[in-house]
Amino acid sequence: MQVQRIVLNSRPGKNGAPVPDNFRLEETTLAPDLKDGEVLVRTLYLSVDPYMRCRMNEDTGADYLTPWKLSECVDGGGVGIVESSRCSTCAVGDVVTSFNWPWQTSAVLKGSGLQKVDPQLVDGHLSYVLGAVGITGLTALLGVREKGHVTKGANQTMVVTGAAGACGSIAGQIGRLDGCVRVVGVCGSDEKCRALVEDLGFSAAINYRQEDVATKLRECCPDGVDVYFDNVGGAISDTVIAQMNNGGHVILCGQISQYNKDVPYPPPLTQETQEALQRKSITRERFMVLNYMSKADAALFELSQYVKSGQIKVLETVVNGIENMGDAFCSMMKGGNIGKQIIKISE
């Protein structure tokens, strides 16, 4: 069986932005006969995410992430359908997902490494398994719940950076549902700002490429900032932290502004920001969703209910065809997506 796959062609330079040529499309052949415990899957959707930039380096800088190997098939979040099976837990026609799905049009995988998906959970929108009702949604929901200390009736203001991305767009909506009276998103275009306010119910949005973030934050958050969901790090984060209230909470989720740089994770803070955190007793703890997987099933069910009822709106940017994986990844790293960046591989 002939299939197409994407391999890592080259690594970006030490402090380099990724380019589509870092990836290469290849044809390969799958052996027709399955071994015990194996399944043949056809890929429906693949995900590209910021953390993958770290996997492009020889050293990912994170003990829980393995680097992608040169000239080998790249992998990440994927969802697909079982086409044949020699695994007792997977039947033909089952929808399955994995964090380590190869970037291939079809693949032979160990059934034990796959999670079964109930299509009802996502109302048939199977791509949502990679986003709002998957690891991205879990990161948003559990990040806000475990580290944000949002309290109904406490008149809290939340700021989200990377707010129009896959995780930020859900996190802001969770903040609103959990009781924040004001949710302000920071993002990189007027189109994203409109989507945040008109589609997702954010109170306000700031375009950091066009507006002075400090001035706009003071306008949008007259009572200061209590909860900060940080997806970007860098100078924008310093600006937000400078306007946080005493006893505030930073949810340290991601640092995408720093991922093309050769710095440790999380990257070091400026002296001024460190002093502000100490002076105002602001908590800033790194949030790792993989440490909270005991809460995943209940949280996924809650996300599913929110999405089905329309209380959480899901934004996606969908590109067609495995040959466009590299372009989609590089576009996402530059903020070309609104919501979750998805690549549709087959019907």
Offer a quick outline of the entry.
The chain has 347 residues and is of the alpha/beta class.
Give a verbal description of the structure:
With 347 residues, the chain is α/β, with parallel strands linked by helices. Helix content is 25%, strand content 27%. The chain is built from nine helices and 15 strands. The strands form three sheets. Strands 3, 4, 5, 6, 7, 14 and 15 form a seven-stranded mixed β-sheet that branches. Strands 10-9-8-11-12-13 form a six-stranded parallel β-sheet, sandwiched between helices. It has a two-stranded antiparallel sheet with strand order 1-2. The mean pLDDT is 95.
Order of helices and strands: EEEHEEEEHEHEHEHEHEHEHEHE
Main β sheet profile: 7 strands, mixed
Put simply, the count of helices is 9
Contiguous low-pLDDT stretches (5 residues minimum) are none
Percent strand equals 25-35%
- Secondary structure category: alpha/beta
Number of strands: 15
Helix content: 25-40%
Radius of gyration: 20 Å
Mean pLDDT: 95
Q: What is the distance, rounded to the nearest whole angstrom, between the alpha carbons of the first and last residues? A: 18 Å
Shape: globular
